[in-house]
Structure to design on (480 residues):
DNA sequence: CCCAGTCTTGACCGGCGGGTCAAGACGTGG
DNA sequence: CCACGTCTTGACCCGCCGGTCAAGACTGGG
């Protein structure tokens, strides 16, 4: 996951962080980060004790506070790294030449797939967490996805492919669908291969947005992310 | 809210509950319930201390445990009551004579409206809460809504009004949309009169489900809940 | 008036868990 | 070998908060 650089971007402020780390130091820090990620994913932030993290990482409790300001800081760093990865993935999946509605679909499919494949890493900011204390940490990142989506939606409306509704509302619907279905998948309430769920979510969103049957059909038909040909029927889509 | 009966239904088990309550007793209990509801709504379950609840109700801490097993029990009782009300509202809103797709729309609109109007009461099982401890309490209730919806969807598929996809997945999409938009509204990210949000959500869901433009148009056109004439055009919507 | 059951109080308990700290170990350069 | 910065340890501290309890107050029936 996060390269040391990526980590440094996130973990600034008035913490013990600005220190220079030796090779060993970086490894230790990463071990703690990994352990925290696994535990947060498994039982959630509130249910994870610092003592659990350090035990899992095989170090003493004090060391945790050598590398991190506090529990929240680890969470923030983890979130930053994962969010960054997700955006990369989306960027890779979206074909700038495609129509707006198709671009939305590509982004949606990539997101669902990403979340499904990295469920452990992703789950701790599930549904942008309802914990009041964490919401503030998550909010800005979520905002970015929203405005990205809204931009595509706006373009789609101008092109007549998308319903003439408030673009922000529609964008909310899109990111909501992604979050919701991913959540259900992660919590085992939907038992489907990621690929199929991603495809379904793509179709769902396209229909919700499309100005009419034709626009929908057109967006469904043209290729999914990374140019993999995907037939409009359900089924048989497998990707990595 | 909850009639004493409704309350009794929920609060059984091996608690201090089976006791017979005097008139005064019922009032006290209700006061605690009200205070708890307000506080849960305002800051969430985890952030609400028992001490805060009793202070708000103007009673001593011990009294809380005279009427309730523990903190969770209050939550459960509150949730049961609200959920019950929501179902009543849905039942009132849905016209059994309407087409399946219209019925879904009516249910969706009624739900969004209900949640918007009772935001305080409702918010504490926001997004069916991600807190692992509470999920188990919420799960069964949520399941009911899901299967209700799925039944309508199934009917709609058979009637050719709804896409031939997995009914359960579609139902998930429907309740997800309701939960998501309500959540955004409640947390102030969508600043719209409830009625407009309800209408929007209805349109969104109908489009996502509809088999084709015609089915969608037909479901959008026919009256909303309680026969209130509602024009299909959208009104000036702005989002916070 | 007394008794018994209902109700009410607030001091107290216990443990949990985030965060601190003084004491080193280790490694590197002088 | 020393000095110094980095790293590591685990015992300890302390506030918080859910839950308990012994001691009453209030009320209605006999």
């Amino acid at each position: 996951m996060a390269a040391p650089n990526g980590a440094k971007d996130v973990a600034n402020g008035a913490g013990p962080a600005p220190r220079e780390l030796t090779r060993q130091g970086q490894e230790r820090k990463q071990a703690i980060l990994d352990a925290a990620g696994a535990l947060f994913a498994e039982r959630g932030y509130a249910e994870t004790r610092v003592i659990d993290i350090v035990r899992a990482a095989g170090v003493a409790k004090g060391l945790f506070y050598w590398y991190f300001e506090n529990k929240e800081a680890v969470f923030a760093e983890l979130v930053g790294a994962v969010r960054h990865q997700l955006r990369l993935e989306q960027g890779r999946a979206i074909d700038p030449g495609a129509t707006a509605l198709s671009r939305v679909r590509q982004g949606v499919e990539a997101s669902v797939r990403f979340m499904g494949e990295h469920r452990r890493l992703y789950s701790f900011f599930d549904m942008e967490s309802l914990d009041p204390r964490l919401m503030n940490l998550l909010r800005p990142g979520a905002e970015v996805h929203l405005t990205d989506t809204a931009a595509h939606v706006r373009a789609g409306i101008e092109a007549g492919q998308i319903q003439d509704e408030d673009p922000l509302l529609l964008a909310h619907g899109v990111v909501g669908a992604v979050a919701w279905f991913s959540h259900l998948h992660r919590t085992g309430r939907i038992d489907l291969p990621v690929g199929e769920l991603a495809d379904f979510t793509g179709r769902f969103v396209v229909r919700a947005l499309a100005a009419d049957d034709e626009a929908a059909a057109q967006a469904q038909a043209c290729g999914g992310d990374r140019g993999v040909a995907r037939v409009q029927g359900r089924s048989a889509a497998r990707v990595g």
